[in-house]
Specification:
Helix-hairpin-helix domain-containing protein, mainly alpha
Length: about 70
């Protein structure tokens, strides 16, 4: 499996960027419901996950009636 395949196997939108999606997947985050167990601050510690990715994830979570932990 190539790194681009890993990014494609997540629920996260392409607008986040391939690197953010790939790095989240490499840390075990591939679905929105998994993000409810982690804080945005914790995700920002992952190399390649920045404020833009967090903003997009927050918006997507909110649309699903979900949110980050804490």
């Amino acid at each position: 499996m190539s790194s681009s395949d890993t990014a494609g196997e997540t629920e996260f939108p392409a607008s986040m960027g391939k690197v953010s999606r790939r790095e989240l997947a490499s840390h075990g985050y591939t679905r929105f419901d998994q993000l409810t167990t982690v804080t945005a601050k914790e995700l920002l510690k992952i190399h390649g996950v920045g404020p833009k990715a967090i903003r997009i994830l927050e918006e997507e979570l909110a649309e699903r009636g979900l949110g980050f932990a804490g």
